[in-house]
Amino acid sequence: MRTGVIGTGRIGSTLARILVAAGHQVVLANARGPRSLGPLLAELGPEASAAHPVEAAGQADLLVLMLPFAGVRGLLPPHVVQDKVLVDATNAFAGAGAPADLGGRGSSELVAEWYPGARVVKSLNTMHFETLAVAGTAPGTAASERLAHFTAGDDAKAKEIVAGIITDLGFAAVDTGPLHSGGILQQPGGPLFNRPLTEAQALAWI
User: Fold this and answer.
1) Which end of the chain has fewer CB atoms < 10 Å from its terminal CB, N or C?
2) C-alpha distances out from residue 94 to 68, 69, 70, 97, Å
3) By C-alpha distance, which of 152, 158, 147, 151 is closest to 199?
């Protein structure tokens, strides 16, 4: 499976590194274009490639959005992600680190509206990039001690696919439920956001 990562800041680049380390192919994209990704591609090796966002979405089997939430709407033609698993790893902030007021809705619900037909899963958004870089690759970590990544969504099979990738990366996959209620648990202001939790600790919050 080829994973597309749109957004190559610290968190997107970190995700690309641990995906490649786990044996996954990645195609990367950002707002500056493929040429800007030369150094990262050289680091990642032959399992990584770069493209413009629309091209990356077309080439990927699964797509992860790791850019600022404000840049998601209109980024891609909806048909490009039709029937694809679309992982919303964005976070909606109002500024100065405060959560955006979305009128009681989850940010991923809006993503699902903007991209009808995509199989949207909220995931990979709660962990700081430095934790992401080391926690999933620590050798010998017992399953019970692995840190959790969460999946929220209304498509059970899509969540299973994302959970499989989370497990490949060395984390515990925890299902937080539907896109609305589970997504709100995960987004800024929710009890699971930016809190490194083991699976058992995470389940206590759900």
Assistant:
1) N
2) 11, 10, 10, 7
3) 147
pTM of the model: 0.94
Residue 103, burial from CB neighbour count under 10 angstroms (0-12, 13-18, 19+):
exposed
> How does DSSP classify residue 198?
B
Tell me: pLDDT of 56 over 90.
Answer: yes
Per-residue pLDDT tens over the stretch 28-50: 999 999 999 999 999 999 999 99
pLDDT at 78 over 60: yes
Distance (Å, whole) CA 20 – CA 24:
5
Residue from 204, 80, 180 nearest 192 by CA? 204
Calpha distance 175→182 (Å, rounded):
8
Query: Diameter of the chain by CA atoms?
Result: 45
Backbone angles phi, psi at 54, to 5 degrees: -65, -40
Distance, in Å, from the CA atom of 100 to the CA atom of 200, rounded to the nearest integer, reads: 29
Q: How far apart are CA 144 and CA 152, in angstroms?
A: 21
Whether the Cβ atoms of residue 7 and residue 40 lie closer than 8 Å to each other: no
- CA dist 151 and 121 (Å) reads 6
